[in-house]
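Lab meeting, item 3. Inverse folding demo.
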């Protein structure tokens, strides 16, 4: 019998169609889903359009954890809509204040060996618990809730072998920063990162979750650890020992690539502006004066993360020129810190305490001052993501953040005394699920729709000829934050695509939305890794609303490409990358016989009418995906 790695085992157990051959399309059964309020309104509108009474998964959960600053009615209206429509369809609801979806999910719902899709790119956090957690667009998650399998290309599996043991002052954040340094933000594209080796025995589930969380920054499909005695200890402490299943790769299982990291030799690291893979040792950055320090997020908001912060701050005071903010990843963590006195230590040191939500990580509050240096325990430091374009953001561990907040300069924590109890998981977590709503308790709920809930845009069937100008030409590593900004001003309008259209591509071209609306049809030209970052479907829905018919690039990030296909926008990859230089902004392009070209194969010829040349592109799609492009999107295709 063929020996399987852990990824292959879980996929094989859930395989609905296809063969486990890397690169070929497969579909897998989905056990659980999660949504959050930034992407949830669209996902649930799409679920409603499918006209099903109840979700078909083992468990689906709607989290309200992103748009929690309420300076107007919009966010509250979204929360009311999500809560009511989710409960009506049999979905559990985690109310505002209960915590960040990824942290709460591993605490209260995750099950080793299960498959999970989430309308958030950091859904792979669940891999720290031995789940196959995959980020997807809202429409894909809605389809999974309706009982459809998840379609994806069978990933390669990269084995990261961990040996040794972390020293005091070096943490799980440094492990994933080292992996990012080695593999880069493109190194995981088309792959699952599977962790093995003797070193994993010394990593708790929250530490593993930090590592799998930032696997999203590698471009990976997901990341996963085995389910072992550490997993059992965590689930037992959560009162969920019955959910434990031991899971491990077969002895001698094959991998597509292997990376070895000795934990004993790691030093504290920092991701420098403006990319998570721009990684350097903190010891080389100690002359950098810091204005702001933020501790928390779905990457480092666990109980042990905040306990280490409290231990370093205890009895000390934050540097007078530093603003320190801290937020627990969940109500459970927050309550336990309050009960054991650690919260008092953090407050006494001068930290400002934020609610249990995504907050500053997505630019929702705490934007730093102009030209500031902000040191954060978060997962992304993309340009302008903090809400301040001129700020430089560094990504670090809680230990680095804590000593930096005290000293006012980026500081290496090696040699700083940190009590062992700050790293220890409790034998029993404080469980109080009173902010989680069980749909069984709301049998007759009516859906609430406020005036900010606008219909999602629908595409139109592919015409025989697609023509328009190049409305924008951009370079490599364009993120979904570039395409559809996510900040405190715009997040309240996640359910209002017409309003968001005014701000599409605003970080790179403030006039794009106005120009696109005037043109009514057009193309976007990009470089490598176009659409990296968040899974937010709005980065496809808003261009769809603006009349973008095709995006031409050197390469795409996985989730964004899928979102474009689901919306009926053609994702075209240049066959010859040098042709990128033969297309300029405002050039007039046409795809003749577009529908016929799509039906015939993957090669699509684009004529540059301005320069009178042909550009050859590739759009390798399955017959299923072709039907989406031809129909103008998934829902149009399903309607027939």
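The presenter then showed the designed sequence:
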């Amino acid at each position: 019998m063929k020996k399987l790695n852990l990824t292959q085992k879980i996929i094989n157990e859930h395989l609905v169609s296809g063969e486990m051959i890397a690169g070929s399309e497969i579909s897998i059964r989905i056990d659980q889903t999660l949504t959050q309020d930034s992407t949830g309104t669209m996902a649930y509108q799409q679920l409603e359009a499918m006209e099903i009474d109840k979700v078909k998964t083992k468990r689906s959960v709607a989290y309200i954890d992103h748009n929690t600053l309420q300076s107007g009615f919009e966010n509250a209206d979204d929360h009311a809509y999500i809560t009511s429509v989710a409960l009506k369809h049999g979905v559990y609801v985690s109310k505002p204040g209960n915590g960040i979806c990824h942290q709460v999910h591993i605490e209260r719902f995750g099950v080793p060996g299960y498959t999970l899709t989430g309308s958030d790119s950091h859904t792979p956090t669940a891999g720290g618990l031995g789940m196959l957690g995959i980020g997807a667009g809202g429409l894909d998650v809605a389809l999974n809730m309706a009982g459809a399998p998840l379609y994806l290309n069978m990933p390669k599996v990269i084995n990261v072998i961990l040996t040794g043991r972390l020293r005091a002052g070096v943490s799980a954040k440094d492990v994933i920063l080292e992996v990012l340094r080695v593999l880069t933000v493109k190194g995981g594209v088309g792959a699952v990162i599977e962790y093995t080796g003797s070193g994993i025995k010394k990593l708790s589930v929250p530490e593993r979750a930090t590592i799998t969380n930032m696997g999203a920054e590698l471009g990976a499909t997901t990341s996963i650890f085995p389910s072992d005695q550490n997993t059992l200890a965590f689930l037992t402490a959560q009162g969920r020992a019955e959910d434990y299943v031991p899971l491990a790769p077969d002895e001698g299982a094959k991998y597509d690539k292997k990376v070895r990291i000795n934990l004993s030799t790691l030093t504290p690291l920092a991701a420098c502006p403006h990319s998570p893979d721009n990684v350097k040792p903190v010891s080389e950055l100690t002359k950098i004066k810091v204005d702001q320090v933020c501790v928390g997020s779905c990457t480092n908001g666990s109980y042990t993360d905040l306990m280490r912060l409290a231990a370093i701050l205890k009895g000390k005071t934050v540097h007078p020129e530093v603003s320190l903010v801290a937020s627990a990843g969940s109500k459970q963590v927050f309550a336990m810190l309050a009960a054991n006195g650690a919260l008092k230590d953090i407050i006494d040191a001068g930290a400002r305490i934020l609610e249990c939500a995504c907050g500053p990580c997505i630019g929702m509050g705490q934007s730093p001052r102009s030209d500031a240096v902000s040191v954060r325990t978060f997962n992304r430091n993309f340009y302008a993501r903090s809400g301040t374009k001129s700020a430089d953001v560094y990504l670090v561990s809680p230990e680095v953040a804590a000593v930096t907040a005290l000293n006012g300069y980026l500081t290496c924590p090696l040699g700083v005394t940190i009590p062992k109890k700050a790293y220890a998981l409790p034998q029993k977590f404080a469980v109080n699920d009173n902010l989680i709503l069980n749909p069984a308790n709301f049998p007759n709920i009516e859906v609430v729709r406020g005036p900010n809930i606008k219909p999602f845009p629908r595409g139109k069937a592919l015409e025989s000829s697609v023509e328009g100008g190049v409305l924008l030409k951009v370079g490599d590593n364009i993120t979904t934050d570039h395409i559809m900004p996510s900040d405190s001003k715009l997040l309240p309008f996640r359910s209002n695509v017409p309003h968001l259209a005014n701000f599409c591509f605003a970080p790179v071209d403030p006039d794009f939305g106005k120009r696109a609306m005037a043109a009514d049809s057009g193309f976007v030209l990009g470089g490598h890794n176009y659409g990296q970052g968040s899974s937010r479907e709005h980065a496809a829905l808003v261009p769809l609303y603006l009349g973008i018919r095709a995006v031409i690039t050197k390469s795409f990030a996985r989730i964004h490409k899928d979102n474009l296909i689901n919306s009926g926008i053609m994702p075209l990859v240049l066959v010859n990358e040098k042709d990128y230089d033969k297309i300029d902004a405002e050039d007039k392009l046409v795809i003749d016989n577009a529908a016929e070209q799509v039906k015939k194969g993957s090669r699509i010829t684009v004529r540059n009418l301005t320069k009178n040349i042909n550009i050859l592109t590739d759009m390798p799609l399955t017959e299923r995906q072709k039907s989406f492009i031809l129909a103008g999107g998934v829902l149009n295709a399903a309607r027939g």
